[in-house]
Amino acid sequence: MKKLVLALSLLLAMFLVACGPPDQNAGGGASSGGASNGGGESQSADTPTPVVLATPTPKPAPPTPTSRPSPTPAPIVSAEETEETEATGETEAAAEAEATTEPEVAVGPLYDDMVLIPAGSFTMGQDGSKPKNGPAHSVELPDYEIDRFEVTNEEFAWFIEQTGFVSYAEENSTKNWRDAAEGKGNHPVVYVTWNDAVAYCEWAGKRLPTEAEWEKAARGDDGRAYPWGNDFVPDAGNFYEGGIRGTTAVGSFGTGASPYEVYDMAGNVREWVEDYFLAYEGAAADADPYFGEENRVNRGGGWFDGEDGEVVTTYNRNAGPPDTSANDDIGFRCVR
After folding, report:
1. Per-residue pLDDT reduced to its tens digit, 249-297
2. CATH class, range 112-331
3. Of 61, 219, 280, 290, which is the most exposed, with the fewest CB atoms less than 10 Å away?
4. Dihedral through CA 8, CA 13, CA 14, CA 17, nearest 10?
């Protein structure tokens, strides 16, 4: 009997040696090197389930900007020069002689893409809005042309190159239009004061639009609240709701064009206009604390504005000091 027990003990010992030590991962989770054992079994129940975080969806890029013609700087010829040429009637030989000493002709803006706004009346202002925006009233205007797009960084840079002009922010601020322009030649120029905008428009043979000219170009003659209609559409422009948080290339939102096919008149950047910030006829002179000739009007709202506050409507009015107000959401366009 003792021999049988001894034999059984010996066999048991040999069996344990052959099987090896117990599995070290059985109760402590999977090792960092893998999720299954050599037999292809699934991961241990004690192994923590990895947490997978959702990747934030990036904001979509704005649509392809409306195409523009290739830049072709046009010479600025004064009316006096034209009259002199017509009245002189030089002979061909004399004209050739003068050609060798002809003075240099000033070079104008890169683009001359403007939209004709027909003469006629339209409704300016809005009843039932903020006191500064009313009352609604009819305004008669002759025809005029307005820039189809806001003045861009590349256009403003060309002006600087041709004239040596130095903007207010370049002399008085830590940020200026050059900082915002890097890699964004077709974005609207920003960090420009009202005075800077006037200097550009005058050099280009144009001027800033009046409030009435700006509003008609944005609104048409049917009194609409937005350039595209009467309801706010977040995708019709570069607004706060879009989350871009900066300027976009001009003409990026074709569905937001005005009835006259003028682009970006709501959102992207606010735009300087000619007028002082004064009450409309029929409104109280003190209806807004900023009324007065200390401030000039800007229109349209910028990339940080949206549906709230009526800021991007066709009739809303904002204003700032013409000498010093130069923000990253204010630009301009010109008329003639």
Report:
1. 999 999 999 999 999 999 999 999 999 999 999 999 999 999 999 999 9
2. alpha beta
3. 61
4. 160
